[in-house]
Amino acid sequence: MIRLATLFRAAALSATTFLAAGLAPADEPASPSGLESVQGVWTTRDDVEVQSTWKIKGDAFEAVVNGTRYLGKIAVDEKAKPHPTLTIDVKEGPGDVKGKASKGVYKVEGDKLIVNLGAPGAERPSDFDQTGDEVFLFELTKKPGAE
Question: What is the structure's pLDDT at 146?
């Protein structure tokens, strides 16, 4: 009986040491952080009304939307609820958008990036419904090998 109890204590101590040392096997590979998950070149399908290409490298953002170019910095909060959020500070763009922030929510589903984005200076949408003139829903596909 004493040997069995000693064996259990030794097993428990070994398991605790193993876990504390960070040597436990990972449950699953870690998913990329928010900013990492949106890196790359993203484009809309050819059959949509609003044609767009987004290039995100680090926090640098470049988009061409129906031929109009926007440059800025992008920040994401993947822990925001109920949906992860992104904010694009527009440094260059047409008209009065320069210097304004465009706020939105996003989700990454495999090679798809879905963004519901308010117009620069407008409020952040809270979900993925495209309602009103100041909200734009982008469904983008990642271009393989393009960085």
Answer: 64
| Domains in the chain: boundaries | 34-142
| CA angle, residues 143, 32, 27, in degrees to nearest 5 | 130
Q: What is the DSSP annotation of 20-64?
A: HTT-SPPSSPPPPPHHHHT-EEEE--TTSSS-EEEEEETTEEEEE
d(CA 99, CA 18): 52
- How many Cα atoms within 13 Å fall on the side-chain side of residue 147? 4
Q: What was the pLDDT predicted at 130?
A: 81
| Largest Cα span, the chain | 83
The whole-angstrom separation of Cα 42 and Cα 25 is 34
> 34-142 adopts what CATH topology?
Lipocalin (2.40.128)
- The per-residue DSSP string of 65-106 comes to ETTEEEEEEEEEETT-SSS-EEEEEEEE-SGGGTT-EEEEEE
25: amino acid identity, one letter = P
pLDDT above 70: residue 24: no
- Top-confidence residue, 15 or 27: 27
